[in-house]
Amino acid sequence: MLPASLEEAVEALAEAPGAVPVAGGTDLMGAVNAGLLRPVALLGLGRIAELRGWQYQDGAALLGAGLTHARMARPDFAALIPGLAEAAATVGPPQVRNVGTLGGNVVSAHPAGDTLPVLAALEATLTLIGPEGVREVPVSHLLTGIDPLREGELLAFVRVPLLHAPQVYLKATGRTGPGRATASVSVVLDPARRSVRCAVGAVAPVPLRPLEAEAWVAGCIDWDGDRTIEPAAAAAFGDYVASACVPEPPEGMDGGPGAAVLRLRRTVSVLARRALGRALK
Ligand SMILES: Cc1cc2nc3c(=O)[nH]c(=O)nc-3n(C[C@H](O)[C@H](O)[C@H](O)COP(=O)(O)OP(=O)(O)OC[C@H]3O[C@@H](n4cnc5c(N)ncnc54)[C@H](O)[C@@H]3O)c2cc1C
């Protein structure tokens, strides 16, 4: 099935219960090839033009779920939503970025999904379209399962507020070259509200927001001046974020798993400090 519009796609899903939508196929076809999934039918989303671009609406960008990572990594998109462009540029090898999509990344909801911490920090919302109409849910609600995709529903758009301020995404991987994140941090400045928003990815099943650390560091920034922060405060922010998002290793576990947790804490602390430093540069 290859519908040419969202309306046709929703109708086709209603007529073929059990059919599975496929965008770039980079996650889905892996599962099919590994024998983990046997869909009764596939619904290709690749011909739906409205899913591939973006439009502006009330100070926000409405991003089509079919935007590829390669498209989001281009300079015109980076000027609009720099954090998302940075995240998209780090996804897998070029073959994956050329076909893998924003919508597929969100619906797959892999803990190390690169766009997810950025969308969490931006407090993005998702437009879902199904047989019962259109509804809007916060990205965190879909990822945590509070409000999952319902039978026959498609993710159509991702609504992202345009903040016109620095945003940074940093990712640590277990090896050099492209790879899944072992930890990632997104930092977003919102000067209009004098706030800093941060989300940490890959350390838990869903991105985590260290809300107390965000509020604390916002109070350390000279918002009326040149938006600077003392180096010691930036380092303390890193530690604050890490202790909020990575559990303390159990006592007496200096080696083995305890050491791995400590390493992860250090990694998150460094990523958060650097991301804040780059956002305030
Ligand atoms: C070699 C390799 C390396 C990778 N590296 C990374 C990486 O570094 N970082 C990272 O984040 N990901 C990585 N991935 C995972 C993958 O490429 C991304 O998650 C990608 O964004 C998935 O998009 P897709 O369009 O290919 O999704 P698909 O495989 O087409 O779909 C994924 C899931 O989403 C559903 N779906 C897709 N679009 C919609 C929609 N509009 N509405 C409802 N459901 C939908 C499908 O039914 C399926 O369940 C990698 C994958 C591979 C194969």
Automatic annotation (TrEMBL):
Q: Does the keyword Oxidoreductase apply?
A: yes
List, for all copies, the residue spans of the domain called FAD-binding PCMH-type. Answer: 1-165
PANTHER family in UniProt: XANTHINE DEHYDROGENASE SUBUNIT C-RELATED (PTHR42659)
**Where is the organism placed in the taxonomic lineage, from the top?**
Bacteria, Bacillati, Actinomycetota, Actinomycetes, Kitasatosporales
For this UniProt record, the keywords arranged alphabetically read as follows:
FAD, Flavoprotein, Oxidoreductase
Q: Which residues form a coiled coil?
A: none
Q: What is this protein called?
A: FAD binding domain-containing protein
Record SUPFAM superfamilies? CO dehydrogenase flavoprotein C-terminal domain-like, FAD-binding/transporter-associated domain-like
Keyword presence, Transferase:
no
Q: Which organism is it from?
A: Streptacidiphilus monticola
Q: What domain of life is recorded for the organism?
A: Bacteria
